[in-house]
Amino acid sequence: MPGFEVLYQAAALCLTYPDDDFRARLPLLREAAPQLRGFTDHAAATEQGALQAHYVEVFDFKNRHSLYLSWWTDGDTRNRGMSLVRFKELYRAHGLEFTGEELPDFLPAVLEFVSRTGDMTMLTEHRDALDELRSRLTAFGTPYACVLDAVCATLPPAPTGARR
């Protein structure tokens, strides 16, 4: 994963709710991860309230654009609980304890994990879900699609016959 650590960390920040800290980090994100310029340029040119409203519209109203990776494979079933445990176990195996407010399969948390450890297991295992999310974000016409474009461009192709 040489060189992708910064991209993954920047993508994680771009996919979290755009609070005041995000706005302050935008110049650094634009400089550090040119692959994300489509999104960061949009974010820099968009008023804070409008950017926040768009984030909520894209990610919070429906699971259609879910940032929770296990939702794509397990939906809202019992199996999802075991998938979440797997994410936590992977974090622990690297000496990290997941204590975030979000679930451990939250894509920004996974991207931050990968940027710190280099372990791409969960990204590659959920490649098909990332492709589906990217496709849906593109169809929706949101600049967030370019963040998924950049992340997916770093991953090997999804295995043939992968389920969505």
Total number of strands: 0
* Amino- and carboxy-terminal Cα gap: 25 Å
As a percent range, the share of helical residues equals 55-70%
List SSEs in N-to-C order: HHHHHHHHHH
Total helices: the number is 10
What would you call the shape? globular
Tell me briefly what this model is.
With 164 residues, the protein is mainly α.
Top keywords for this entry?
164 residues; mainly alpha; 10 helices; 63% helix; 0% strand; globular
Structural notes for this entry:
The protein has ten helices and no strands. It is globular, with a radius of gyration of 15 Å. The chain has helices spanning 5-14, 20-32, 37-45, 48-59, 69-74, 79-93, 107-117, 121-125, 127-140, 144-152. With 164 residues, it is mainly α. Helix 9 (127-140) packs antiparallel against helix 10 (144-152). The mean pLDDT is 91.
List the helices and strands and how they pair.
Blueprint: H1 5-14, H2 20-32, H3 37-45, H4 48-59, H5 69-74, H6 79-93, H7 107-117, H8 121-125, H9 127-140, H10 144-152
